[in-house]
Design the sequence.
């Protein structure tokens, strides 16, 4: 296992100081090397870690091209996904790495303003970043001129981290998505081209700036190079791990002390992601390209083991209820569609299925995607569709015999 | 679409989902290309508007009480080898749509009303 972002003292001891950070990683490279950062990120093959997996260099180049020196950079640490903790662990333990990445991004895209966008309930992360900002302000040996960095604290909600919602919150205090385009890279904070980049992606960029693209590509065991933070739940040792991309789910299971048998379903990516089952699922490498090919997603790096004993239908019903409650209530198909899905799932899960509930759920799992301003309906219905496949027999027995054979109810995952 | 293929106008219908309030006017004016789901929100047939329906599509756009619909120039296929566009406004089953690419309208809107509430308006 290659450990990079979380190398150094264990995250449990808290934020690394500026002095320790410098002593461990050294200063950022000089201006000439920094001016080549976007092409370096391109050859490194760094993909965004907020969930969509978009190539980082292309995003930076798009903003730089449009902004002509007047861009905004927003470090996205909203982390509204209930199953994900990795951004909080990173911000709380390596605040200077996040800030290095933010400053490098600001310089590379030509930003005059940078924003740390951190969920208001992520108090430890915010505290670490605020302290780190103060340390940097008091530091005289700074290597390059810095953009002003401000903190924005959205309410923690599933959608607050969606990039148009982030821009909307900074512009008007309303953390709900807007209709796109214009996308943030075209017209974002204050109407300026805005780079919205997840804090983990920025931290990888800060290491690539120091050590180069070839170094970055040394890690990774399958198609996609590099390491990634993943949040693992469902085992005896849940938590945040840094893995080489391409590490198999079985290896992660062993690491996290998962007792359930190989082949029991795994939720990948997050509530936006999908359930996978079967022995080959456990052999699947956690690699964005390979997972996409297998019909699922790396997403925000969530690996949640559902276990053998929990009821997949009950778990899905809980997640659907959460997703319906997370709707920003702006688009009709999302408002009514997700609520209908949540209600029907709950009826099926609790033995109160109506005649056509399961048929209707199957229909909604394909008829609502793509019909919202943001991708919440796509994410929710994608997860539902994967559950209907993976737990097909369970959905049927719940619907037709109103019977649940699982020893326990819903999997113990936050929702 | 039995046999004859309709001429492609090169235009696509897009909906601002936040603005859309399920008036249903569009589906009344252009039933060939727009269905309503069970809550009254439009489902647009995949593909571009055929030439012979373009005038009706324009009327549907102009008649939307909340101006939530637009005709936009369809983007050229990104890859040369991309599959040919779906039969124009055909096959009312399995319709899918992309995210509408138009600018935001005012964002603080009244909450969406249920179909029952709308009938009372």
Sequence:
């Amino acid at each position: 296992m290659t450990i990079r972002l979380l190398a150094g003292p264990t995250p449990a001891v808290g934020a690394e100081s500026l002095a320790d950070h410098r002593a461990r990683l050294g200063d950022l490279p000089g201006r000439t090397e920094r001016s080549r950062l976007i092409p370096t990120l391109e050859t490194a093959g760094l993909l965004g870690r907020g969930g969509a997996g978009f190539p980082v260099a292309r995003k930076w180049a798009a903003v730089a091209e449009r902004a002509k020196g007047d861009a905004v950079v927003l470090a996205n640490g909203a982390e509204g996904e209930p199953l994900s903790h990795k951004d909080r662990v990173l911000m709380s333990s390596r605040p200077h790495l996040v800030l290095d990445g933010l400053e490098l991004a600001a310089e590379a895209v030509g930003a005059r303003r940078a924003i740390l966008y951190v969920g208001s309930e992520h108090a430890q992360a915010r505290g670490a970043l605020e302290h780190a900002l103060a340390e940097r302000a008091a530091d005289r040996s700074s290597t390059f001129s810095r953009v002003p960095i401000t903190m924005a604290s959205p309410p923690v909600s599933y959608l607050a981290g969606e990039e148009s919602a982030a821009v909307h919150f900074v512009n008007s205090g309303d953390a709900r998505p807007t209709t796109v385009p214009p996308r943030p890279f075209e017209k974002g904070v204050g109407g300026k081209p805005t780079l919205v980049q997840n804090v983990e992606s920025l931290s990888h960029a800060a290491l690539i700036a120091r050590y180069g693209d070839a170094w970055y590509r040394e890690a990774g065991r399958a198609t996609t190079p590099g390491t990634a933070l993943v949040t693992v739940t469902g085992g005896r040792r849940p938590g945040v791990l840094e893995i080489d991309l391409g590490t198999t789910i079985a290896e992660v299971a062993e690491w996290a002390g998962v007792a359930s048998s190989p082949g029991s379903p795994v939720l990948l990516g997050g509530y936006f992601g999908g359930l996978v089952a079967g022995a080959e699922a456990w052999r699947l490498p956690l690699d964005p390209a390979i997972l996409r090919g297998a019909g699922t997603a790396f997403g925000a790096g969530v690996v949640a083991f559902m276990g053998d004993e929990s009821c997949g239908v009950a778990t899905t019903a809980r997640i659907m209820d959460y997703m319906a409650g997370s709707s920003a209530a702006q688009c009709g198909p999302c408002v009514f569609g997700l609520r209908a899905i949540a209600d029907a799932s709950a009826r099926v899960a609790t033995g109160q299925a109506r005649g056509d509930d399961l048929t209707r759920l199957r229909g909604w799992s394909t008829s609502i995607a793509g019909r919202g301003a943001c991708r919440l309906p796509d994410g929710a219905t994608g997860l539902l569709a994967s559950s209907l496949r993976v737990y097909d027999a369970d959905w049927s027995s719940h619907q037709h015999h109103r019977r649940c054979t699982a020893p326990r109810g819903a999997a113990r995952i936050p929702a | 679409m039995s046999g004859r293929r309709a001429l492609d106008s090169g235009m696509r219908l897009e909906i601002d989902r936040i603005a859309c309030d399920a008036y249903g006017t569009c589906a009344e004016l252009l039933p060939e290309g727009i269905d309503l789901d069970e809550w009254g929100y439009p489902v647009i047939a995949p593909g571009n508007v055929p030439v012979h329906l373009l005038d009706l599509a324009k009327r549907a756009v102009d008649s939307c009480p909340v101006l939530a619909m637009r005709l936009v120039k369809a983007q050229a296929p990104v890859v040369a080898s991309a599959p040919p566009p779906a039969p124009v406004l055909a096959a009312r089953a399995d319709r899918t749509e992309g995210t509408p690419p138009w600018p935001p309208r005012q964002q603080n809107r009244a909450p969406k009303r249920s179909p029952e509430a709308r009938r009372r308006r």
